[in-house]
From TrEMBL:
This is Peptidase A1 domain-containing protein. GO terms for molecular function: aspartic-type endopeptidase activity. GO terms for biological process: proteolysis. It comes from the Eukaryota. The keyword Signal applies. Residues 137-468 form the Peptidase A1 domain. Pfam families: TAXi_C, TAXi_N.
Length: 520
């Protein structure tokens, strides 16, 4: 494959579920009613069609690592949804990494290790057990002259992009990896440079992550392979080739840091970046940087103010003011600060809340769901239900409230997690929230599951994160007569504690699309 072009895969057909049902939103609840149609759709085969990276526009394709189209997985591997235990364990490691104390000790630089072709790439420390930012969603970008293209996972908190570079620590072949000896524009960043944030002694700058083998360097970066070129782009070259790192090549940093891709490509008057993460592991989303501000139909855009947390200046924290469930405020203790301690992250799947915030949300959810059969916890997810065999379900919706008076409603598949998404919601599902792990429970994290299927726009210069609305609002009369009658009949039988109010929704009746792909 040419080093100047890397092809991504796009699913020909969206994933079709095997659960036949009608769904709609009434107030602050989502209702599901099994269809009387006995025929059931079958899942579309996992087939891919190659497209050039970049989609011919300002959008770069984003795929989940478990997609059959993902360069981090491969079409010959399963694209099934990971177990809750796997996701939770990875999330806990991620949360602990997010809020770990940054390294700040003085590092004495040893003599650099020679690399093929005469380029000298210094090596430091020992192999780290995990790479910060190794997460779920990947894009293809390019480095060096001539271009070397790689799939990298998205990262919004690291403060520095990371790329595996040759020579690898074991001196074995570690493909794929960036080869500095083949780039005519590769340079080391010296200690004392503004791009070297580690206090160090020597001519090269070690990575600021404790125990990582590598250094801070510069080269040409290309966001869309043929466009979005950044000269003298600063990133970290790491040399770890432990199997735990593979097939990850690196992490593309979109953080607040001045060295991030988002900062280097930012233009006046445009949002810093945006992404749409696919709900399905076999779907495709997109990433844009410095693109035009998105326009939502009807102007329905929700804004969350960005706030700065001095302890973690690279991360994105939002001004979360409260949470409501089914139109009722969750009783958060007045002394609990959530305004400056809630991060929005692209590397964490579930949403983790401070224990004294999670507990009342969980209790309110359980109180609303007492008529449904419970299921055993899924590892760290302790509020689970078995909806198998039911004819109708009502799920209370979570609303995140922000300090500016605006809010954002999470959909049912942003609120609950199922290991069998093709049969959702008539399957076992759990509340996709958990208490933040001990030792780091003074922070909350809004994970990717809560962000899927809608474009998330980071307007850093404007101090806000935006969510264009993706709902299709309809009147009950617009539904087919048979469906309308069935809905009305089943609503009367749903064991739901709907209070009869439309809560904050202007339109009480709403249906939403099941998005396998992200749309503008």
């Amino acid at each position: 494959m040419s080093p100047t072009v890397l092809f991504f895969c796009l699913l020909l057909l969206p994933q079709l579920g095997t659960s036949s049902h009608i769904s709609y939103t009434l107030g602050s609840k989502k209702f599901f009613v099994r269809s009387s149609d006995k025929s059931q759709a079958t899942s579309a085969p996992a087939s891919c069609s190659s497209i050039p990276s970049g989609l011919g526009s300002d959008k770069v394709p984003v795929v989940h690592r478990l997609s059959p189209c993902s360069p981090l997985n491969g079409a010959d591997k399963s694209n099934s949804k990971p177990s809750a235990m796997d996701v939770y364990r990875r999330d806990v490691r991620r949360v602990r990494s997010l809020f770990a104390s940054p390294a700040g000790e003085i590092v004495s630089a040893p003599a650099p290790a020679p690399a093929p072709g005469g380029v000298r790439v210094p090596a430091y420390g020992v192999t780290a057990p995990t790479v910060p930012g190794v997460q779920d969603y990947a894009v293809v970008v390019g480095f060096g002259t001539p271009l070397q293209a790689f799939a990298m996972v998205l990262e919004t908190s690291l403060g520095l992009s990371l790329l595996r570079c040759k020579p690898c620590a074991s001196r074995r072949d570690c493909e794929p990896a960036f080869d500095p000896s083949k780039s005519s524009t590769f340079t080391n960043v010296p200690c004392g440079s503004p791009d070297c944030r580690t206090t160090c002694l020597g001519s090269v700058c070690p990575l600021p992550f404790g125990g990582m083998d590598g250094s801070v360097v510069q080269d040409v970066f290309r966001f869309r392979i043929s466009a979005g070129i950044v000269n003298n782009f600063t990133f970290g070259c790491f040399h770890d080739d432990h199997p735990a790192f593979r097939p990850v090549v690196g992490a593309l940093d979109l953080s607040r840091d001045s060295r991030s891709v988002a900062s280097r490509l930012a233009t006046p008057g445009a949002p810093t970046f945006s992404y749409c993460l696919p709900l399905s592991t076999s779907g495709m989303g997109f990433l844009t940087v410095a693109a035009a501000r998105p326009e939502a139909p009807g102007g329905r855009v929700q804004h969350a103010p960005l706030v700065l947390n001095p302890a973690f200046p690279s991360a994105y924290f939002i001004d979360l003011a409260g949470i409501s469930l089914n139109g009722r405020d969750v009783p958060i203790p007045p002394a609990t600060d959530i305004a400056h301690t809630t991060a929005i992250d692209v590397g964490t799947s579930f949403t983790f809340l401070k224990p004294d915030v999670y507990a009342p949300l969980r209790d309110a959810f359980r109180a609303d769901m007492t008529d449904y059969p419970t299921a055993p916890p899924m590892h760290g997810l302790d509020t689970c239900y078995n909806f198998t065999g039911l004819k109708a379900i009502a799920i209370p919706l979570v609303r995140l409230k922000f300090g500016n008076g605006e809010s954002f409603i999470l959909g049912e598949e942003q609120t609950m997690y199922s290991e069998h998404p093709s049969t959702f919601p008539f399957t076992v599902a759990c509340l996709a929230f958990a208490a933040s792990p001990s030792g780091h429970d003074q922070y909350s994290v809004i994970g990717t599951l809560a962000q899927t299927s809608t474009e998330v726009v980071y307007d850093v210069s404007g101090g806000k994160v935006m969510w264009p609305s993706s709902g299709d609002f309809v009147n009950l009369e617009d539904l087919p007569v048979q469906s309308s009658k069935m809905l009305i009949g089943e609503v009367r039988r749903v064991p739901a504690r709907y209070d009869g109010k439309a809560a904050d929704d202007e339109h009480p009746w709403r249906t939403t699309r099941d998005l396998a792909f992200c749309h503008d």
